[in-house]
Amino acid sequence: MATPQPWLSVVIAARNERERLPALLAQLAHQSLLVREVLVVDGGSSDGTEQLARLAGARLLRCAPGRGRQLALGAREAQGPWLLLLHADVRLPPDWAPRVGRARGRRSGVVWYFDLAIGNRHPALRLVEGAVALRSRLRQLPYGDQGLLLPLAHYRACGGIRPIPLMEDLDLVQRLRRRGRLLSLGTALQVDGRRWRQRGIWTTTLSNARLRRAWRRGEDPEALARRYYGTP
Q1: I want to staple 146 with a disulfide (CB 3.0 to 4.6 A). Which of 46, 95, 122, 142 is the partner?
Q2: Does residue 232 register a pLDDT over 60?
């Protein structure tokens, strides 16, 4: 009997993630029967992220910073029939591989996402996680830091990620949900909680909501990115 071939292309957007990226790459390396390739798209790191990605066996790509540009490049270069789009500061749950494997064999035309867990013990963040879960299920609006799993053909049919510096995930998800359902994988990945720690939980939550509202009203993504990242 022929050995099943790995079928998943994992695309990771990274910039100055030396402290967090190695753990994610190690998780992926342990699933060689599932993961066909790992593409780390670096947006101008200065902390050794590129070297770490190479040492871990990932395929390294480079472009100007901006998750939209980075993920779009990685997806364009992907060769597997399925994509998993991730940010570099996440940790996958222990049961991620079997859940991803089962998702592939279930309903066609479905996009899958992880639930969200924030790496901080503050009880207020549990409320944020609950709100994210409700929004994802009821409004079909998971965001990029939850990861997106979908067939490559489905990704291309909806036009893929636009190379914009902010709101690339919301833009993509809105197009995907016009074509079919987005469903939870039923397990949560953990995102780094540093933005909430640095800026405050409610300040960060309200700021993100205002940015999303401004984008829906048609404000320039470049201007929104400067506001988000605090650059002049």
Answers
A1: 142
A2: no
SS3 36: strand
The amino acid sitting at 57 is G
CATH code for the domain in which residue 55 is found: 3.90.550.10
pLDDT in tens, 164-202: 888 999 999 999 999 889 999 999 999 988 877 778 888
pLDDT digits 0-9 by tens, 133-163:
999 999 999 989 999 999 999 999 999 999 8
Q: Order across the sheet with 59-62: list the strands.
A: 59-62, 35-42, 8-14, 82-87, 148-151, 111-119, 182-192, 90-91
What value, to the nearest 5°, has the Cα angle with vertex 100 and ends 7 and 163?
A: 70
Tokens of 123: 């009880």
> In Å, how far from its chain's centre is CA 201?
21
Q: What is the DSSP letter of 147?
A: -
Task: Tell me, yes or no, whether 204 lies in a domain.
Answer: no
Residue 203 lies in a domain: no
Tokens at 216, concatenated: 């829906």
Partner residues linked to 14 by β-bridges: 42
In the chain, what percentage of residues exceed pLDDT 70?
97
In angstroms, the CA 152 to CA 78 distance is 8
